[in-house]
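To whoever picks this up:

The parser on our side crashed when reading a file containing two proteins. I've narrowed it down to the boundary between the first structure block and the second sequence. Both blocks are reproduced below exactly, byte for byte. First block:
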Amino acid sequence: MFATSMDGADALCLHLSLIRTEKLHGLDPYHYYVKLLKGIPYCQSVEDYEKILPWNINKEELLKVA
Protein backbone atom coordinates (compact mmCIF):
# COMPACT_ATOMS: atom_id res chain seq x y z
CA MET A 1 0.00 0.00 0.00
CA PHE A 2 2.80 2.47 0.87
CA ALA A 3 5.51 0.98 -1.33
CA THR A 4 5.62 1.26 -5.09
CA SER A 5 7.95 -1.70 -5.64
CA MET A 6 8.95 -4.98 -4.04
CA ASP A 7 12.32 -3.53 -3.04
CA GLY A 8 10.53 -0.60 -1.42
CA ALA A 9 8.24 -2.98 0.44
CA ASP A 10 11.24 -4.99 1.67
CA ALA A 11 12.95 -1.81 2.92
CA LEU A 12 9.76 -0.64 4.63
CA CYS A 13 9.35 -4.00 6.37
CA LEU A 14 12.93 -3.81 7.62
CA HIS A 15 12.39 -0.35 9.11
CA LEU A 16 9.03 -1.18 10.65
CA SER A 17 10.43 -4.36 12.15
CA LEU A 18 13.34 -2.42 13.65
CA ILE A 19 10.97 0.22 15.06
CA ARG A 20 8.77 -2.43 16.70
CA THR A 21 11.85 -4.11 18.20
CA GLU A 22 13.03 -0.77 19.61
CA LYS A 23 9.63 -0.12 21.16
CA LEU A 24 9.55 -3.65 22.58
CA HIS A 25 12.81 -2.89 24.39
CA GLY A 26 11.54 0.48 25.62
CA LEU A 27 13.65 2.64 23.31
CA ASP A 28 12.69 5.74 21.38
CA PRO A 29 12.97 4.82 17.68
CA TYR A 30 14.31 8.22 16.60
CA HIS A 31 17.11 8.29 19.18
CA TYR A 32 18.01 4.68 18.44
CA TYR A 33 18.27 5.37 14.71
CA VAL A 34 20.58 8.32 15.45
CA LYS A 35 22.81 6.07 17.59
CA LEU A 36 22.68 3.30 15.00
CA LEU A 37 23.64 5.53 12.07
CA LYS A 38 26.42 7.20 14.07
CA GLY A 39 27.76 3.86 15.33
CA ILE A 40 27.77 1.72 12.20
CA PRO A 41 30.79 3.43 10.56
CA TYR A 42 32.92 2.58 13.61
CA CYS A 43 31.99 -1.11 13.74
CA GLN A 44 34.90 -3.36 12.82
CA SER A 45 33.86 -6.69 14.34
CA VAL A 46 30.76 -8.71 15.04
CA GLU A 47 31.01 -7.68 18.70
CA ASP A 48 30.89 -4.01 17.69
CA TYR A 49 27.67 -4.60 15.75
CA GLU A 50 26.19 -6.58 18.64
CA LYS A 51 26.79 -3.64 21.00
CA ILE A 52 24.40 -1.46 18.98
CA LEU A 53 21.55 -3.96 18.78
CA PRO A 54 18.36 -2.70 20.48
CA TRP A 55 18.47 -5.24 23.32
CA ASN A 56 22.04 -4.22 24.21
CA ILE A 57 21.36 -0.48 24.49
CA ASN A 58 20.94 1.26 27.83
CA LYS A 59 18.14 3.88 27.77
CA GLU A 60 20.27 6.46 29.59
CA GLU A 61 23.15 5.92 27.16
CA LEU A 62 20.78 6.42 24.26
CA LEU A 63 19.62 9.82 25.49
CA LYS A 64 23.23 11.04 25.79
CA VAL A 65 23.79 10.51 22.06
CA ALA A 66 20.90 12.66 20.87
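<<boundary where parser fails>>
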Amino acid sequence: MLTLGVLISGRGSNLQAILAAIADGRLHARVAVVISNVADAPGLAHASAAGVPTEVHSHRGWPSREDYDARLVQVLRAHQVDLVCLAGFMRRLTSVLIDAFPNRVLNVHPSLLPAFPGVDAQRQALDYGVRVAGCTVHLVTPTVDAGPIVLQAAVPVADGDTVETLSARILREEHRLYPEAIRLIGEGRGRVEGRRWLSDPR
Protein backbone atom coordinates (compact mmCIF):
# COMPACT_ATOMS: atom_id res chain seq x y z
CA MET A 1 0.00 0.00 0.00
CA LEU A 2 1.27 3.43 -0.96
CA THR A 3 1.92 5.74 1.99
CA LEU A 4 1.18 9.40 1.31
CA GLY A 5 2.24 12.63 2.93
CA VAL A 6 0.05 15.57 1.94
CA LEU A 7 1.18 19.20 2.19
CA ILE A 8 -1.47 21.92 2.35
CA SER A 9 -1.80 25.64 3.03
CA GLY A 10 -5.55 26.19 2.79
CA ARG A 11 -8.93 24.53 2.42
CA GLY A 12 -7.60 21.13 1.37
CA SER A 13 -10.23 20.26 -1.23
CA ASN A 14 -7.81 18.03 -3.14
CA LEU A 15 -6.88 16.40 0.16
CA GLN A 16 -10.58 15.65 0.63
CA ALA A 17 -10.71 14.15 -2.87
CA ILE A 18 -7.77 11.89 -2.05
CA LEU A 19 -9.31 10.79 1.23
CA ALA A 20 -12.65 10.12 -0.49
CA ALA A 21 -10.96 8.00 -3.17
CA ILE A 22 -9.24 5.95 -0.45
CA ALA A 23 -12.47 5.56 1.51
CA ASP A 24 -14.48 4.26 -1.45
CA GLY A 25 -11.78 1.91 -2.68
CA ARG A 26 -10.71 3.74 -5.83
CA LEU A 27 -7.26 4.39 -4.39
CA HIS A 28 -5.26 1.74 -2.54
CA ALA A 29 -3.23 4.04 -0.31
CA ARG A 30 -3.20 5.67 3.09
CA VAL A 31 -2.45 9.22 4.16
CA ALA A 32 0.13 8.97 6.95
CA VAL A 33 0.35 12.68 7.72
CA VAL A 34 -0.99 16.04 6.60
CA ILE A 35 1.40 18.95 7.06
CA SER A 36 0.44 22.60 6.82
CA ASN A 37 2.54 25.73 6.95
CA VAL A 38 -0.58 27.65 8.06
CA ALA A 39 -1.91 26.94 11.55
CA ASP A 40 -5.57 27.66 10.77
CA ALA A 41 -5.72 25.97 7.36
CA PRO A 42 -9.24 24.48 7.04
CA GLY A 43 -7.80 21.33 5.48
CA LEU A 44 -6.35 20.33 8.84
CA ALA A 45 -9.87 19.83 10.19
CA HIS A 46 -10.73 17.57 7.26
CA ALA A 47 -7.67 15.45 7.97
CA SER A 48 -8.44 15.19 11.66
CA ALA A 49 -12.04 14.20 10.91
CA ALA A 50 -10.68 11.35 8.79
CA GLY A 51 -8.36 10.24 11.59
CA VAL A 52 -5.22 11.37 9.81
CA PRO A 53 -2.36 12.80 11.93
CA THR A 54 -1.66 16.47 11.28
CA GLU A 55 1.31 18.71 11.95
CA VAL A 56 1.80 22.45 11.54
CA HIS A 57 5.23 23.74 10.60
CA SER A 58 5.28 27.43 9.80
CA HIS A 59 7.69 28.51 7.09
CA ARG A 60 8.43 31.68 9.02
CA GLY A 61 11.57 32.14 11.09
CA TRP A 62 13.81 29.68 9.27
CA PRO A 63 17.27 30.82 8.11
CA SER A 64 16.51 29.66 4.56
CA ARG A 65 14.01 27.80 2.42
CA GLU A 66 16.40 24.86 2.43
CA ASP A 67 16.35 24.69 6.23
CA TYR A 68 12.57 24.67 6.24
CA ASP A 69 12.40 21.96 3.61
CA ALA A 70 14.90 19.87 5.59
CA ARG A 71 12.45 19.95 8.50
CA LEU A 72 9.64 18.79 6.24
CA VAL A 73 11.83 15.93 5.04
CA GLN A 74 12.41 14.86 8.64
CA VAL A 75 8.67 14.76 9.33
CA LEU A 76 7.81 12.94 6.11
CA ARG A 77 10.50 10.33 6.68
CA ALA A 78 9.38 9.86 10.28
CA HIS A 79 5.98 8.88 8.88
CA GLN A 80 7.60 6.58 6.28
CA VAL A 81 6.04 8.42 3.37
CA ASP A 82 6.44 6.95 -0.12
CA LEU A 83 4.85 9.77 -2.12
CA VAL A 84 4.55 13.46 -1.27
CA CYS A 85 1.38 15.13 -2.57
CA LEU A 86 1.11 18.91 -2.78
CA ALA A 87 -2.54 19.89 -2.36
CA GLY A 88 -2.64 23.65 -2.39
CA PHE A 89 0.73 23.99 -0.65
CA MET A 90 1.68 27.59 -1.37
CA ARG A 91 5.43 27.23 -1.09
CA ARG A 92 8.04 26.71 -3.76
CA LEU A 93 10.04 23.60 -2.89
CA THR A 94 13.83 23.46 -2.96
CA SER A 95 16.00 20.59 -4.11
CA VAL A 96 16.40 19.57 -0.46
CA LEU A 97 12.91 18.08 -0.42
CA ILE A 98 12.68 17.20 -4.10
CA ASP A 99 15.94 15.22 -4.02
CA ALA A 100 14.90 13.44 -0.82
CA PHE A 101 11.93 11.94 -2.72
CA PRO A 102 13.17 11.58 -6.32
CA ASN A 103 10.26 11.41 -8.77
CA ARG A 104 8.00 11.04 -5.74
CA VAL A 105 6.68 14.59 -5.25
CA LEU A 106 3.40 15.22 -7.04
CA ASN A 107 1.46 18.42 -7.67
CA VAL A 108 -1.79 19.43 -9.35
CA HIS A 109 -1.93 22.69 -11.31
CA PRO A 110 -5.01 24.42 -12.79
CA SER A 111 -3.86 24.67 -16.40
CA LEU A 112 -2.81 22.47 -19.28
CA LEU A 113 0.92 22.78 -18.70
CA PRO A 114 3.24 23.97 -20.09
CA ALA A 115 0.66 26.73 -20.68
CA PHE A 116 0.13 29.19 -17.83
CA PRO A 117 2.52 28.06 -15.10
CA GLY A 118 2.73 29.83 -11.76
CA VAL A 119 0.00 31.71 -9.94
CA ASP A 120 -3.42 32.79 -11.28
CA ALA A 121 -3.40 30.24 -14.09
CA GLN A 122 -7.14 30.56 -14.63
CA ARG A 123 -6.91 34.33 -15.00
CA GLN A 124 -3.95 33.89 -17.35
CA ALA A 125 -6.06 31.55 -19.51
CA LEU A 126 -8.98 33.96 -19.67
CA ASP A 127 -6.74 36.94 -20.40
CA TYR A 128 -5.10 35.01 -23.23
CA GLY A 129 -8.47 34.10 -24.71
CA VAL A 130 -8.07 30.34 -24.89
CA ARG A 131 -11.13 28.21 -25.63
CA VAL A 132 -9.85 25.20 -23.67
CA ALA A 133 -8.28 25.27 -20.21
CA GLY A 134 -7.77 22.38 -17.81
CA CYS A 135 -5.56 20.88 -15.14
CA THR A 136 -2.34 18.91 -14.91
CA VAL A 137 -0.92 16.46 -12.39
CA HIS A 138 2.85 16.51 -12.65
CA LEU A 139 5.99 15.50 -10.83
CA VAL A 140 7.74 18.37 -9.09
CA THR A 141 11.15 19.67 -10.15
CA PRO A 142 13.05 22.76 -8.97
CA THR A 143 11.61 24.71 -11.93
CA VAL A 144 8.04 25.71 -11.11
CA ASP A 145 5.35 23.67 -12.90
CA ALA A 146 7.87 22.17 -15.32
CA GLY A 147 8.13 18.56 -14.18
CA PRO A 148 7.06 15.44 -16.11
CA ILE A 149 3.32 15.42 -16.80
CA VAL A 150 1.48 12.39 -15.43
CA LEU A 151 -2.13 13.20 -16.39
CA GLN A 152 -4.11 16.09 -17.85
CA ALA A 153 -7.79 16.93 -18.29
CA ALA A 154 -9.27 19.54 -20.59
CA VAL A 155 -12.01 21.95 -19.52
CA PRO A 156 -13.83 24.05 -22.17
CA VAL A 157 -13.93 27.79 -21.55
CA ALA A 158 -17.50 29.07 -21.82
CA ASP A 159 -18.56 32.46 -23.10
CA GLY A 160 -18.96 34.72 -20.09
CA ASP A 161 -16.71 32.63 -17.87
CA THR A 162 -15.15 34.43 -14.93
CA VAL A 163 -12.11 33.36 -12.96
CA GLU A 164 -14.47 31.97 -10.34
CA THR A 165 -16.69 29.93 -12.69
CA LEU A 166 -13.76 28.55 -14.67
CA SER A 167 -11.85 27.74 -11.48
CA ALA A 168 -14.81 25.80 -10.10
CA ARG A 169 -15.05 23.58 -13.19
CA ILE A 170 -11.30 23.02 -13.28
CA LEU A 171 -11.34 22.12 -9.59
CA ARG A 172 -13.89 19.37 -10.20
CA GLU A 173 -11.51 17.85 -12.73
CA GLU A 174 -8.59 18.19 -10.29
CA HIS A 175 -10.56 16.18 -7.74
CA ARG A 176 -11.07 13.41 -10.29
CA LEU A 177 -7.60 13.48 -11.78
CA TYR A 178 -5.35 13.67 -8.71
CA PRO A 179 -6.39 10.35 -7.11
CA GLU A 180 -6.10 8.67 -10.52
CA ALA A 181 -2.53 9.93 -10.94
CA ILE A 182 -1.62 8.71 -7.45
CA ARG A 183 -3.10 5.31 -8.33
CA LEU A 184 -0.99 5.06 -11.50
CA ILE A 185 2.17 5.81 -9.56
CA GLY A 186 1.25 3.42 -6.76
CA GLU A 187 0.64 0.62 -9.26
CA GLY A 188 3.91 1.36 -11.05
CA ARG A 189 2.07 2.13 -14.27
CA GLY A 190 4.60 4.56 -15.67
CA ARG A 191 8.15 5.77 -15.36
CA VAL A 192 10.25 8.87 -15.79
CA GLU A 193 12.55 8.82 -18.79
CA GLY A 194 14.62 11.95 -19.18
CA ARG A 195 12.21 14.84 -18.61
CA ARG A 196 9.11 12.88 -19.63
CA TRP A 197 6.65 10.60 -17.87
CA LEU A 198 5.90 7.52 -19.94
CA SER A 199 2.66 5.76 -19.09
CA ASP A 200 2.41 1.99 -18.96
CA PRO A 201 -0.99 0.98 -20.44
CA ARG A 202 -1.22 -2.28 -18.49
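After patching the parser it read the second block fine. Residues 57 and 69 are 10 Å apart (CA to CA). The mean pLDDT is 95.
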